[in-house]
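Appendix B, Record 12. Input sequence as logged:
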Amino acid sequence: MSASGADRGAQLDAGLVDMMNAVFADYRATHPPTGPIRRDTELWAGLDRLGLVRLTGSEQSGGSGASWYEVAELIAAAARNGVRVPLAEHDVLACWLLEQVGAPIAAAARTACILDETGTATAVPWASTAERIVVIWQHDGGHLLADLDCAQLRITPGSNLIGEPRDTVAADTSALPGTPVPAGLVAQLQLKAALVRSIQVCAALDKILELVVEHASARTQFGRPLSKFQAVQQLISDTAAEAALARAATEAALSAAVRSNWSGSNLRFAVSVARSCAGHAASVAVRNAHQVLGAIGTTAEHRLHEYTRAALAWRSEFGSVQHWDQQVTDAALAAGTDGLWSLIAD
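Logged structural output:
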């Protein structure tokens, strides 16, 4: 485990981690995916009773007062078990914004988005299944925020590669009452959203590796397990190495965020590295996994495709792989030879 991983592990309660995994494993066992993905209100209510819906919210505002280490484990547990639920969008994005600006937080499932100059946001996670949406838009050189009922917005349904709602949201911003939002909060929102997807990709990569190892160990070809063939071993080891690199980069970014309360001078670089590593790792893991499993990995009977498609979908949200590669490159060039080491080591 990396130093950042050790920091994270020291912060986590083993009983809480086990409970999170058990909740999602039990749900997935009794709710195999069928049809379009929607927010399961029964699951949501159960998670709310357990204090997991607003895990990081302050106790004064009705939350559980947990840290980002706990919510990262919660997000990862859902992803590992193939359970699609907008916990991150609700807790660490939408409700966090409301709490930061001192707005009341009534019980309602939320997501958040930033509207462009036309009052439109595309690929908004879970908007069509939310009850309220926290919208941010530019106004007089700054930003305003409003917590709106979905009926006040124009929502056009869409979906990502695995069928999660990714919708278009539009509003007439000139008619909206808004609360001023500091620019720093908008920047934090973007970094938090990006890191959430990196956490999810890493969880999917770990599950992909688990499924590939399981298959290669159990499947025989020419009288011996697939895992005994050198070519298969190479595919598995490359997948493991890429998954480990992505996880280490993501844990480092998470630790940097927690230590600096999301305000570290090098935090954007750390998140960019995490997203870049996770994005490239997804390419290797998806390619190698489907080579090892062959056609069976694409069938409805096998779960591999649930995770390979998820990894590809999530790595492209809140910034493409190319975007985050460019962020890493720009930061390294700006630091120059004298500042590059401190940029990496901080």
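The longest strand covers residues 132-139.
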